[in-house]
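Input chain follows. Return structure tokens only.
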Amino acid sequence: MGLPPFRYHRPATLEEALHLLERLGDGAVVLAGGTDLIPQIRSGAAHPEDTVDISRLDELRGLSVKGAQLHIGPLATHAELAASALVREAAPALAAACATIAAPPIRNSATLGGNLANASPAADTAPPLLALNATLQLSDRRRSRSLPIYDFFVGPGSTILEDGELITAVSVELPAYRSASVFAKFGKRNAMAIAVASVAVYVAVDPGSGAITEARVALGSVGPTPFRALEAERVLRAGTGGAAEIQAAATCAANATQPIADLRASADYRRLLASILVQRAITDALDRARAEGCQSCTK
């Protein structure tokens, strides 16, 4: 099945892209990797009048460490992030999530910014970035603003991006010494399957006692948006990371879910999966943080 007609634009610079988006208005859509947009256009779910192809903008690429943050260009592909030694060391949960997305041809094309902007409740990169306390830079022709990813998703397929805005940078705090981040996902297959439930956990521990000093727990595919399980985090921070506290945190996380029932799973099954995955991810992250900690992070 072919694509319906639309006007195609390929700006040479970020400034040109932002000018185009302002001029074209809400009839324009952004094309990056195209792995979400093209199927949506082909199925009739999207009806763009204009498509602005940003896939060749070098300003939106690259990985670097600046100060205490890892900066990621939104055009970084899932394959690049999964293969990057820098990302595997500084943001292992993100690298692990990117390695599970679809098949190699999709991972070679699909971009981090596109995965976030598409705002699927099952977006695999969202829970790791939530657990890693990521910050997004959003830009239009007139201004740039930064905000925590926690505030980015507002509903299924919906974000706070305004007309003419692009995600122009993703920043992640370098993890603390004696910390670890873990991603866990359950689907019908390891890849090429939308997650039935996914979880990302970040923990930091005291180098001497091993007690938890920071904890963040994020979930996907079990609510209208990816989200942080704040009560579960409070339970972990208030304790020492014993088995009972981990189980209590997992129960809190499951109670915070709002799962739907569909062809892939019932709501009750998703809620149960969330509890199991959170318990396993916390245990794994604590074991890693207490055993090794982060080798290239702040000390």
